[in-house]
Please model this.
Amino acid sequence: MRYRLIGVGAVALAGLWLARAGEPPAAKGGDALIKQGEYLVNEVAHCSHCHTPPGDKGQPDRARLLQGATLPIKPKEPTDQWAGKSPDITHSGLAGMWSEADMVKFLTTGKNPEGEGPTPPMPVFHLRDEDARAVTAYLRSLPG
Model:
């Protein structure tokens, strides 16, 4: 179950990587699109489980929502192909670095702008185009 939750968090992260810096937080979104993205990121993918640092009681710290964190899991066998930290996926992080097209590509194909897949434990996602756009709009709406 815990690995499934990590995968959900990865969806949010992927969306942020594709956003472009300098655009207004709600750019190319609209309230309905952002609300759909918020639902997908927080209720379906549970991106905050990996991308939000824990608070005092071990729960995700909502004041630092999706701003990156040390991952609470490790692989059974040591490997270089494992991310020890998750990145900031808000507008001040990855969502502000990638273009909307790059972000949507990553969320729909699993390939970043360089043609590479995500580093485990982040899974590859194949979202529908409209869902990828919603995740991107939501992540860009978060200031970080």
Remarks:
- The chain has one domain: 2-73+81-141.
- DSSP finds five helices and two strands in the chain.
- The CA atoms of residues 8 and 45 lie 3 Å apart.
- The first helix runs from residue 2 to 17.
